[in-house]
Specification:
The chain has 270 residues and is mainly alpha-helical. Helices cover 79% and strands 0% of the residues. Helix 3 crosses helix 4, helix 4 packs antiparallel against helix 5 and helix 9 crosses helix 10.
């Protein structure tokens, strides 16, 4: 037990050193990763306007105008939301736009009936909620010295909800195969997922998940190796950028910490 505690302590020290040296750039990297799937999808709406319009028309039978309106809303909503997030202008409005796009696409593309894609969309929504929580932190910091009530519960509960939704991405990566290596990966992955969800050793767990997910993403979703004429290229590209957005959400967890509703925070009061 003492050796395990010593190992965790050393790992946390390394993580803290990494965070100290990257604290000024980490939030920017997190935001860029987080909005990457919306940026890519917005650009794709422009270049595949007719294909997307025809798909919505054939799937729902809503006609040319409403199908075109759907593509237009997706293009403007996603590009506009990304610009606002990156420029740090009206971030709550941008988060509302991007959450609305997630809900719209979940219905329009029948994602509600696909458990894997639904969990990934919910994980993406978790990242946006964390981005919204970060904007509240910045808003409070503008009025330093002004007393606040309690521990700013809305922000803390947004961080809790964002963390829980984020880990749904990893549920889609678990493979229940009868092999020792896969079983060990699943056990370690589940342990890290639970740590992030309940807020225990949160920054270290989230950082390990970032590294793990980044390796898996570049290995399994290498869309640049697929010829442009193959449909698999678009599927892998979609998965790649959606995973990058979840990585961005986890980087926000690393940068901001777990918030007040977490075991890490309660340990400070014990």
């Amino acid at each position: 037990m003492s050796s395990q505690n010593e190992f965790l302590s050393k790992a946390e020290d390394i993580a803290d050193q990494v965070l100290r040296h990257s604290k000024h750039v980490l939030p920017h990297i997190a935001r860029l990763c987080l909005i990457s799937t919306f940026l890519e999808d917005g650009i794709r709406m422009w270049f595949q306007w007719s294909e997307q319009r025809d798909y919505i028309d054939s799937a729902w039978g809503v006609g040319y105008f409403l199908s075109s309106l759907f593509v237009f809303i997706n293009l403007i909503g996603q590009i506009g939301g990304c610009v606002m997030v990156l420029s740090r202008k009206k971030v709550p409005v941008a988060c509302g736009l991007l959450l609305g796009i997630i809900a719209l696409q979940t219905i329009a593309y029948s994602i509600l009936w696909d458990a894997k894609f639904l969990m990934r969309n919910l994980a993406l929504a978790g990242g946006i909620i964390l981005l919204l929580a970060e904007s509240r932190v910045e808003g409070k910091s503008l009025f330093a010295g002004v007393p606040t009530l309690g521990d700013n519960s809305p922000k803390n509960y947004m961080q809790l909800g964002g963390r829980i939704l984020l880990v749904l991405m990893f549920m889609t990566l678990l493979r229940f195969e009868m092999s020792v290596v896969q079983t060990i990966q699943n056990i370690i992955g589940m342990a890290l997922i639970l740590c992030v969800a309940v807020g225990f050793k949160t920054k270290l767990s989230a950082l390990v998940l970032v590294l793990w997910l980044t390796v898996l993403n570049f290995y399994f979703n290498a869309w640049w190796n697929i010829p442009e004429y193959r449909p698999m290229r678009d599927f892998l590209k979609y998965d790649f950028f959606q995973t990058m957005s979840v990585i961005g959400g986890l980087l926000l967890v690393v940068a901001l910490g777990p918030g007040g509703v977490s075991l890490d925070e309660h340990k400070k009061k014990w």
